[in-house]
Design goal:
The protein is an alpha/beta fold and 191 residues long. Helix content is 23%, strand content 30%. It has one domain (21-158): 3-Layer(aba) Sandwich (Rossmann fold). The longest helix is centred in the N-terminal third of the chain and has 18 residues, at 20-37.
């Protein structure tokens, strides 16, 4: 039973796992790392909607290489707290990536099923190179032997929201990343 009404703010978090400042610092570090990796290259960044949108916006501004940006939507959660199988790619790229360096940016590597499916899908377009960058990695949940090429933070097996990550399309606006209170996860009446 829901004992509190959600406010859709930081007060709905059980705990903050990654602060706003930690995110800012790590995104700058990732931008530097990516800039060194892609030095002198033109890169197509593919942001996975909707969760990676905030991360992608900050990351692309911290990178020092020529970029093109496109978005791909893959649905794997819906209103649940765990990924569903198999993920569905629901809107295609508008940019031709054949022969281009491609960096896929996603919010979280959970089971690995979604990112693995996206990588397999994009490989069909014969990019020059194909790498992945995730904000969060949750290794305890991996079902496939798949890892991201670049990662912001490794986190425990907790359901997290904030900084683009949501629960039923809520909490994306939080500047930090935190664990949503269990009673709010268990109740479908607030979505």
């Amino acid at each position: 039973m829901l004992t509190q009404k959600p406010s859709y703010t930081e007060s709905d978090l059980e705990t903050v796992l990654v602060s706003k400042e930690e995110i800012r610092q790590r995104v700058l570090e990732l931008g530097k790392q990516l800039s060194e990796h892609y030095e002198g290259k033109d890169v197509t960044i593919v942001s996975i909607l909707s969760g990676a949108l905030v991360f992608t916006a900050d990351l692309i501004r911290s990178c020092d290489f020529a970029t093109r940006l496109d978005c791909l939507r893959a649905e794997s959660y819906g209103n649940a707290t765990s990924a569903q199988n198999p993920p569905r790619i629901t809107n295609p790229l508008k940019t031709d990536i054949t022969g281009h360096h491609v960096l896929v940016v996603d919010d979280i590597l959970d089971s690995g099923n979604t990112l693995k499916a996206i990588i397999a899908h994009l490989q069909g377009f014969s990019p020059a190179s194909l790498k992945s960058c995730v904000l969060l990695d949750k290794p305890a949940r991996h079902e496939k032997s798949f890892s991201a090429d670049f990662c912001g933070f490794t986190i425990p097996d907790k359901f997290v929201v904030g900084y683009g990550l949501d629960f039923a399309e809520r909490y994306r606006n939080l500047a930090c990343i935190g664990v949503l209170k269990k009673e709010l996860q268990d109740s479908a009446s607030h979505v």
